[in-house]
Amino acid sequence: MTSVRNRSRLRKGEGEQLRREILAATRDLLAEKGSHDLVSIRDIAHRVGVSPPSIYLHFETKDQLTYAVCREAFEGFGARLLPILAGEGDALDRLRRVGEAYIRWGLDNAALYPVLFLGEPPESMEHEVMAGDPGLLVLAGLVALVRLGMDEGAIRGDSTPEATAWAMWAAVHGTVLLLSSKREWMQSHLAEADTPIGIPGVDELIETVIEAVFRAFSPADG
Amino acid sequence: MTSVRNRSRLRKGEGEQLRREILAATRDLLAEKGSHDLVSIRDIAHRVGVSPPSIYLHFETKDQLTYAVCREAFEGFGARLLPILAGEGDALDRLRRVGEAYIRWGLDNAALYPVLFLGEPPESMEHEVMAGDPGLLVLAGLVALVRLGMDEGAIRGDSTPEATAWAMWAAVHGTVLLLSSKREWMQSHLAEADTPIGIPGVDELIETVIEAVFRAFSPADG
């Protein structure tokens, strides 16, 4: 009886350690399966090596757990991009740096990226997602910076700030997804085949995309 | 006994009809589940209302069946885009039209698009995918048209034709995915909330992206 009581009343450090292990296992499973719907509390408990009730000591529902993982990832995303958006340099220069940082962050987090940027957040978490989500703060910061650049004449104003910001987002979003899925597949399966499909290098494609976005939204000459 | 024999020896038209129904059910299931791995012959048989062995009369393996669906979709994709790539007009004008047609086709096929353009093809089908796949023909045609445009001086030659073609692909790929996943989600969940996140219109974003790609790869002035 004593040993059972000891196990459920974990010392503070042990509880925190288990919580970290649960988050790490959930993150790995989300990355492997690609969707919240395909990961169960049972899978997570199995991966950590504990029983499902041990998970519920730390997280009330699966949605709260998968949301905690996504939130943590988006916090890393915000920590990387928000200082650039709000930092030094003219608008177009900051946009160029934020675009490259976005792609690099996406490739560093390639397995989780589709869960974060293609799927929908866990349903019961929608309210929290709306309130202060770092991913949405980055998007709001991007639109604000584009608007500022247009006001200063540093970014061309043919389109609305929203459409311009989303067009920039589409370019870097598509680049992350092509580099992490299609390019890898083509490289392993078409490289040895005698095929006319050329595959650009990672750095080469990133530079081409970033320079193209820069040129596309620079102000019109004279 | 006679009726059983009649059912297994289908008249020609009935077999073709069942084949179409199997393909349609598989297409729907792939679009709903988002991946080959999540669709089973049992699911497909259940959706059509036949037994699994009836499926095997038409397709030897699940891979052959899901490949047939993807192949059919890519044939529609090629039929829409290849005539533009190989058609009239200067290179940059054709690229502009092929870019817009790509996005419109992606939105018309939004549910199946991630299966076709994010996942990998069924493993056993890789050889067929390499040989004459219409999706790869479009990519090869795009690279060839970019190369032609660069030779003619109609497209700027700062990057390789491959990196330029992939950068264009990234822009339209990202646009299809943002419009069909993120924009829809934001519209339904952020519209009623008092949020500063502006959401561009579909036509507005498509036009902004296409014009931006056009400007980005036009030859440098003077």
Task: Report on this structure.
Two copies of one chain form a homodimer. With 222 residues, the first copy, chain A, is an all-alpha fold. The first copy, chain A, folds into two domains: 1-59, Arc Repressor Mutant, subunit A (Orthogonal Bundle), CATH 1.10.10; 70-217, Tetracycline Repressor, domain 2. Chain A is 71% helix and 0% strand. The first copy, chain A, has helices at 2-8, 12-33, 41-48, 52-56, 62-85, 91-108, 113-117, 126-130, 134-151, 161-190, 202-217. Chain A is globular. Residues 1-7 of chain A have low confidence and may be disordered. Chains A and B meet through helix 8, helix 9, helix 10 and helix 11 of A and helix 8, helix 9, helix 10 and helix 11 of B.
Fraction in beta strands of chain A: under 5%
Class inferred from helices and paired strands of chain A: mainly alpha
Q: What's the gyration radius of chain A in Å?
A: 22 Å
Q: Largest interface by residue count? A: A-B, 59 and 59 residues
Alpha-carbon distance between the two ends of chain A: 84 Å
Compute the average pLDDT of chain A: 87
Count of the separate structural domains of chain A: 2
- The CATH class of the largest domain in chain A is Mainly Alpha
Shape verdict of chain A: globular
**CATH architecture field of the largest domain in chain A:** Orthogonal Bundle
**Secondary structure: number of strands of chain A:** 0
Sketch the topology of chain A as an H/E string, one letter per element: HHHHHHHHHHH
The CATH superfamily title of the largest domain in chain A: Tetracycline Repressor, domain 2
- Quickly count the helices of chain A: 11
Largest sheet of chain A: none
Low-confidence segments of chain A: 1-7
Oligomer: homodimer
Helix content of chain A: over 70%
What's the CATH topology name of the largest domain in chain A?
Answer: Tetracycline Repressor, domain 2
